[in-house]
Design goal:
By secondary structure, the chain is an alpha/beta fold.
């Protein structure tokens, strides 16, 4: 892999770099469909100490590591060289795939509930995964779904974010919009599910501040992709969550106010009512079958839906609303 034709690159703290295009010689010409649904393995070899590194903590995909100073083993297929495992991804942030011009791109934008916390390990059952499988069943390999969820992310906060001043949930939705949405090619639909963390003890934002930040971000998406379908997703309940930062009554009141704002015509082209798909009207929290977490079989935190909850969310989306006009 090369960068601008060179075999090395230096990335400053907080920076990023794209490699040159890399052909996949193992994909037969004109037969890319043979690999549909397969997982791509990327091997990384770090010489010496890496220093601070980017990571996707809850990738929920098993990766394997060799022992420190063991050398390069990416060409090996046996197990002995990789005694360590992790559920996170490191260094590599994205893969840019070449697709036919006009391919609809659906961006799922949000926080940990889009990232897939509490879904099944190696199961690919986040709600964007469910949506992707439904689209593939209907339209074949003609629609791309991009998961742009970051655990802990907020709409209005934090006020500052930098390599020298990091925040566990990453930069605010508005601050990362250019990198994660506006810089993409062919965005035809934008589904936004976010707000829970803004109203947590870690965020404590007002409803008005979140609404204003949401309006501003939606305006930027419309300006860049005027033909795109913008879909607002209602925020699922965290009432009575066991998470220290969530679960209290004021958070739920703010969530309901934001959902009423999202449901009001004028800002979004359509609404994905994830709240209705997951709410237990008796308790005001998540439906009981959606509480036990699917990653390890734990009791769940009443904040993140499990596999059943994500399935209900993905199945509740109207495909004709997500990609109108596609036949």
């Amino acid at each position: 892999m090369r960068f601008a034709g060179q075999d090395s690159v230096t990335i400053p703290p907080g920076g990023m770099a794209w490699s040159d295009a890399l052909p996949l010689p193992f994909v037969p010409e004109g037969q890319g469909g043979l690999l549909q649904g397969r997982k791509l393995t990327v091997s990384l070899h770090v010489v010496g100490e890496s220093g601070p590194m980017t990571w996707h903590a809850k990738a929920l995909q098993t990766s394997y590591g060799s022992a420190p100073a063991a050398g390069r083993h990416g060409h090996e297929e046996g197990e002995a060289a990789f005694p360590f495992s992790t559920a996170s991804w490191f260094f590599l942030d994205a893969l840019d795939m070449l697709a036919p011009a006009g391919t609809p791109v659906v961006v799922a934008f949000g926080d940990s509930i889009t990232d897939g916390t509490a879904s099944t390990m190696n199961g690919d059952d986040r709600w964007p995964d469910v949506l992707q499988r439904r689209l593939f069943e209907r339209f074949g390999n003609r629609v791309a779904v991009v998961n742009a969820g970051i655990g802990g992310n907020q709409i209005a906060g934090p006020a500052e974010y930098a390599a020298e001043k990091p925040f566990p949930g990453g930069p605010s939705a508005g601050a990362r919009l250019e990198r994660d949405v506006l810089s993409l090619s062919g965005v035809s639909s934008f589904i936004w599910l976010e707000g829970t963390n803004d109203f947590s003890h870690n965020g404590n934002a007002s409803v008005e501040a979140v609404q204003a930040a949401m309006r501003e971000a939606v305006g930027r998406v419309r300006a860049k992709f005027p033909q795109a379908r913008l879909i607002g997703a209602t925020v699922t309940s965290a009432l009575n969550s066991t998470s220290p930062a969530h679960g209290f009554a004021l958070q739920d009141e703010k969530r309901k106010a934001l959902n009423a704002f999202i449901r009001t015509p004028g800002l979004f082209d359509a609404v994905a009512d994830f709240d209705a798909a997951t709410l237990d009207p008796r308790t005001g929290g998540l439906r009981p079958e959606m509480v036990p977490e699917s990653t390890t079989g734990g009791p769940g935190d009443r904040l993140h839906p499990n596999r059943a909850g994500y399935l209900a969310m993905g199945m509740s989306l109207d495909l004709s609303t997500v990609v109108p006009g596609l036949r």
